[in-house]
Amino acid sequence: MSSPIVTRRSAQQAKIQTRAMVKSKTSAIASSSATLASSTTTTTGATTVTTASAALLEAKRRARNMLKAQKNNTIAIQDGVTDNFQNAIIAKGLRRGATALIFDESMSQHRCLWDDTHQERPERFTRTLERCRELKLVERCLQLPSRVASKAEILKLHSDEHYDRLESTAGVQDPDAMEELSSHYDAIYIHPSTFKLSLLASGSTIELVEHLLTGKAQNGMAIIRPPGHHAMKSEFNGYCYFNNVALAAQHALDAHKLQRIMIIDYDVHHGQGTQRFFYNDARVLYFSIHRYEHGSFWPNLPESDYHAIGAGAGLGYNFNVPLNKKGMGNGDYMAIFQQLLLPVAIEFQPELIIVSAGYDAALGCPEGEMEVTPACYPHLLNPLLQLANGRVAVVLEGGYCVESLEEGAALTLRALLGDPCPPLVERLELPSEELREALLNSICVHRPYWRCLQLQQTYGPEEYAAAAGDNDVSLLHCVRRIWLGGELPPALPQSEQRYPTRGTSAQLEPQVVAASAARLQRLRNETQLLVPAMRVCYAYDPEMLEHCNLHDSSHPEQPLRIRRIHQMHESYELLDRMQLLKPRAATTDEICLAHTRSHVNTVRRLQGRSPEELQQLSSGYNSVYLHTETFKCATLASGAVLQAVDSVMSGETRCGICNVRPPGHHAEPDKPHGFCILNNVAIAAQYAIREYGLERVLIVDWDVHHGNGTQHIFESNPKVLYMSLHRYEHGAFFPKGPDGNFDKVGLNEGRGFNVNIPWNKKGMGDLEYALAFQQLILPIAYEFNPQLVLVSAGFDAAIGDPLGGCKLTPEGYGLFTHWLSALAGGRVIVCLEGGYNVHSIAYAMTMCTKALLGDPIPTPQFGAAAQRPATVAFQSCVETLQQCVQTQREFWRSLMFGCKLPQCTVGENNNEDFLAATMDQLSISNDDALGAAGGVDSDAGHAAQERPSGSKPKVKVKTLSEFMEEHKELLERQEMFAVYPLKSCPHLSQLRPELAPQSIDADAACVDCGSTAENWFCLSCWRIGCGRYINEHMEQHCRLAQHALALSLSDLSVWCYECSAYLDHPLLHVYQNLAHLHKFKEDMPWTHSCRKRADGCYSTSASQPDEQQDDCSSSSSNYYIQLERHD
């Protein structure tokens, strides 16, 4: 029996063409009724640029066929055209929306009647509002009217008895009775206003979420009390009565049908109530960071440990990071966000983020005894603000040091309003060993469920035994669970439970309180909150267009690059929102900060040279062309960046965009190189150090080519941290050689201040770059604590670039720009380097500008589900990141998480190898499938008779998993596509195989337009029509006549227009064979796992009864592997 995998090889390429190729070829000869693909020619100065035809662009943007497993094990196909720039186009109309704020002054009424020292007191609420008003934040917000939640809304999660019990306390003026009732609940007091205010808190939270989901606000904050995250279905707990955040999430699920909500709970106490509501629900990812101390800290529950990862459908969607010691601070919390929370968030792709914002981990809080400073909270929030399309709701929970609570909450609201994160006054403390252990434990147990958590290497028992024998297991993490919470109390009826009601508030020693108060006051005084009113400055000069290649008008470094960027900024109405800088040329003295004087003089002497002399001179350099105006353009480009440095460092604007050319990062101190004349960013960094006395400048270079010039200029300078992400290909990619490898860390005093992240495969996209940011760039950058960030923003890693071969999207660049804007108090300057698809770079730079302006950017579709096979690019990315972490951890202690994890963990969560698991999922046809070795014995002769001539009987067919593994690189390079057809569909009943025609002419023309390209054959009426990429006549016919099934005369596949899917079923073979006979002059091989029947009768049921399994096994794996060539 033939293989279930049908391949189209080179001998058939002339007959089986891609739709894009057919469309491109036929557009010139199609009838006048067909839509013609047009091309546009643009002339700029001496440069003529021809853009690609619309058909070719459409072909390049085709969505790739994707796996999507259904519950019935059928495979759906997503077909259609995807515009790579669609998100950037959508972003044109997106402007920064309002930040909503909701509160109610009456919430100050809730207090404990029998304990005036109780820490859940009205001042928590009133002082927070006062501080927000003092900073003039309230008046900048969209203030929403508060409302009470309805009973129906509360009963979505809480029981009737729970609601009625609290309702019965409304207005009761008997403190003794209220204290008696409160004593049956853990850490609860009930006031006559508690019922109404609890409804008000829940209703206001729901109202805030409603405004975000209906687009009336971009983000928002609910300053409310009482808090909610401990409240359970039928139990008050921990100052909480109704679970505000859980009710709002449930409202979003029910009213708006959201499928992915992320709840982030950084209150110092575990929100066990929220966890329990969604523990089995994959639609809600709950992520909690809380003090635990191995169960000895309240609420003293085993379920608060890292091993509680969800159950049922929610397995893998519950995250606990238990903090097992006091005194953890900014460095610990930043590490949790960078190493775990953010990677999971971008893989989860939330549609809404709700933050349970407790500030009891803040410095000075007697409950948490942690040391997170108020200014750190904006840094935790900032990277989330461009996820979920900006829909982030912050809801107040705990926090019992009023001074740190009011400041932390106010700075959180300030971040929501788009103000830059304030620089941290104190040097970032590095993560503690206890945090390292807890974080790695959590990563380890979630590793099987999340692709982004597969970055660490693993070890087995043999490796551990060998390391233990050598007394060196420091890089082998051991997963441990310790319980210090004592014996769990017996479960008693609520009426029999008793808890203390007085003197329950935590107390600190007076000297500790005084020291914390003094430290908080100093931090408040020294934290820089004043920012320029103008967000962004913009540098551009049309005179930079004059530098062009006189001998090659198609050279990729063309003047149209910056003109197109400028035009798109005009189209997106961004220029009026920025300060436009006056152009100026950099002086010789300024240029010589990074270059030799002889180099400057050499470039200056180009003026007045003939074209022939210029060509002769340029031949002495690597990939450089020269023009008589090269010196003027290069000095203008460098001067423009210096203008931006002056604007940002003097406080005129917060950040800058430099749309300049020629680029600079390849330029060496003594010569031009790689399209670059002067190293604009290097000159700017040296200028900032000299003119403004800076000690720490960060350069992030995301151009797809390594910035060899910048590296060489600063490799011995500890004042400049150079970080480059670039395609390397083991030194074979331009500029070639070993300088761009991960082991080049700097020289002498500059060791550790050069960080190379070299990609050894093409195809890197948003996911791979995001992981590099989270695992390396942001941790190191925060540890370095820069005073200015310069971005060498080459966009040749963008999708569609002719040189880069990578897949970054414009919105991906916008997201990374936003992440960098949290550094250096927002002082970020983005400077154009490479990028040679004028459409890609225009969209990409525009998204960077919009990010700096605070506009929402569509969230990149990272597409990293752990159920999908790992791409070749991703696997290579993981290898690179591991090498970089191992190399750089010598210099940066924030990279302490780069150790090996055990291959499996003891307990309920099996940490199986990811690749083995995913390939098993792909092995739909197995080695024992009928026909895998030539069929069963009784049918061997029959099977041999059915083989076409030239086939090889008795050759074992590869399983699908083997074939896919062998051709994984072809799939990733998009030279091969896997199509997964349905096994059956209800429209097969339309077929009458017994009435099939005698023959099918595979070369027949469309009856409507005469096209002979990509035609289809209607299986109901035998009509011939052209496909959707020609004039769509077959689709129009099938829709009108309700004939669902059509046969492709190109590749013999069958498409169901009603199911929107390809179909593979034995009933179709008679039609496919007729077309195959006409095309190839031989019968089509029988590829189905059931026996071929003489009567042609086959079941059309997707799930067949047992007695028919012998005839047509449901384990059939009818896959088509189609090879397409893109020239």
UniProtKB/TrEMBL annotation:
Domain UBP-type: residue ranges: 983-1084
Region of interest called Disordered, as start-end residue ranges on this chain: 1097-1127
Subcellular locations according to the entry: Cell projection, Axon; Cell projection, Dendrite; Cytoplasm, Cytoskeleton, Cilium basal body; Cytoplasm, Cytoskeleton, Microtubule organizing center, Centrosome
Reactions this protein catalyses: N(6)-acetyl-L-lysyl-[alpha-tubulin] + H2O = L-lysyl-[alpha-tubulin] + acetate; N(6)-acetyl-L-lysyl-[protein] + H2O = L-lysyl-[protein] + acetate; N(6)-acetyl-L-lysyl-[histone] + H2O = L-lysyl-[histone] + acetate
The keyword Nucleotide-binding appears for this protein: no
InterPro entries: HDACs (IPR000286), His_deacetylse_dom (IPR023801), His_deacetylse_dom_sf (IPR037138), Ureohydrolase_dom_sf (IPR023696), Znf_RING/FYVE/PHD (IPR013083), Znf_UBP (IPR001607)
Predominant localisation class: other
Pfam families to which the protein is assigned, alphabetical: Hist_deacetyl (PF00850), zf-UBP (PF02148)
Membrane-spanning ranges: none
SMART domains xrefs: ZnF_UBP
Cofactor: Zn(2+)
Pathway: Protein modification; protein ubiquitination
One annotated GO biological process: response to stress
Keywords: Actin-binding, Cell projection, Chromatin regulator, Cytoplasm, Cytoskeleton, Hydrolase, Metal-binding, Methylation, Nucleus, Phosphoprotein, Repeat, Repressor, Transcription, Transcription regulation, Transferase, Ubl conjugation, Ubl conjugation pathway, Zinc, Zinc-finger
Biased composition (Low complexity): 1103-1117
GO MF annotation list: actin binding; histone deacetylase activity, hydrolytic mechanism; transferase activity; zinc ion binding
Stored Gene3D superfamilies: Histone deacetylase domain, Zinc/RING finger domain, C3HC4 (zinc finger)
Domain of life of the organism encoding this protein: Eukaryota
GO cellular component entries: axon; centrosome; dendrite; histone deacetylase complex; perikaryon
Similarity-based family: Belongs to the histone deacetylase family. HD type 2 subfamily.
Protein name: Protein deacetylase HDAC6
Lineage: Eukaryota, Metazoa, Ecdysozoa, Arthropoda, Hexapoda
